[in-house]
Write a structure and sequence with these properties.
Oligomer: single chain
Order of helices and strands: HEEEEEEHHEEEEEH
Number of domains: 1
Radius of gyration: 18 Å
Helix content: 10-25%
Strand order of the largest sheet: 3-4-10-9-8-7-11
Structural class: alpha+beta
Shape: globular
């Protein structure tokens, strides 16, 4: 999944979409020998480093007693926002979106929060294909940190694991997403177990 730079910045991961030509080669930082999943780039005069969003593994002990490997990857939506008519075309980047300083700042917390998933409950979204975790790290702060993700079984016999793709993450905005009043919930460890064993996902009774 790791491409040579600068193509890693000019091509959206997994989607194969080519980034607009407004992101110049001059703004791309050469990759290190190990090749990064997300290369750094410049936003104006600021260097934006994405090394904290490298893929990583989270071991998850499931209810059946097994420790399953959960491979975590991140979508560019965790550090970008949707474009508006007021945004100049030159600001468009990944998925034709716009770099968001607020989301980028919050994204440094993502690996630590995701590492805690084996001990928490997660919720089903309206679409019923994705899941949501609400991080309530600051009880006095009403705008909870919403982390949207999807999970799937990946790999062959020797490398079988659960892939967790964080699709988006941002502070709560009632205009963009409002969780169901009584959302379906499931312990993350049970979700991983059922996905790995290809079993139906059963939610806790409400």
């Amino acid at each position: 999944m790791k491409d040579e730079l600068p193509s890693s910045l000019r091509q959206t991961r997994r989607s194969g979409q080519v980034m607009p030509s407004t992101v110049s080669v001059a703004n791309v930082i050469p990759s290190s020998p190990e090749k990064r999943y997300w290369g750094p780039f410049f936003h104006g005069n600021n260097l934006i480093c994405l090394s904290h969003l490298e893929p990583h593994d989270v071991p998850c002990v499931t209810p059946d007693g097994h420790t399953r490997r959960v491979r975590v990857i991140y979508s560019p939506h965790v550090f970008t926002r949707g474009a508006t008519p007021q945004d100049p075309l030159t600001s468009l980047c990944f998925d034709k979106r716009v770099y968001c300083p607020d989301r980028y700042r919050e994204s440094f917390r993502l690996p630590g929060i995701v590492a805690s998933f084996p001990n928490v409950k997660v919720f089903q979204t309206h679409e019923k294909r994705n899941y949501l975790f609400l991080a309530v790290d600051l009880p006095a702060q009403a705008d909870r940190y919403h982390i949207f993700f999807e999970v799937s079984k990946e790999g062959g016999k020797r490398n079988r694991h659960v892939l967790l793709r964080v699709e988006s993450a941002y502070r709560g905005d009632p205009e963009s997403y409002t969780p169901p009043k009584v959302p379906n919930s499931i312990r993350f460890a049970m979700l991983v177990q059922n996905v790995f064993l290809e079993r139906p996902i059963d939610f806790a009774p409400r």
